[in-house]
Design brief:
His_Pase_superF_clade-1; His_PPase_superfam
């Protein structure tokens, strides 16, 4: 038995001042997130761990739904 660990950095996020926890994704960032979901959806991922920031959760949300 073996374990694969995939590290995914969040999609592109706007470079604005403000609360780091609530900063979301740009339009390109959402495209990045769709691309990640497509790349990894057939990898048999059992668990997904994400940081608490919105941009990280938005990035992995599509994959988590698969």
């Amino acid at each position: 038995m073996h374990t694969n660990i995939y590290f995914v950095r969040h999609g592109e996020s706007p470079k604005t001042e403000g609360n780091e926890r609530t900063r979301g994704l740009t339009e390109n960032g959402f495209v990045d997130a769709l691309h990640i979901a497509e790349l990894l959806k057939n990898e048999g991922i059992d668990s997904i761990i994400s940081g608490p920031y919105q941009r990280t959760m938005f990035t992995i949300e599509g994959l988590a739904r698969h």
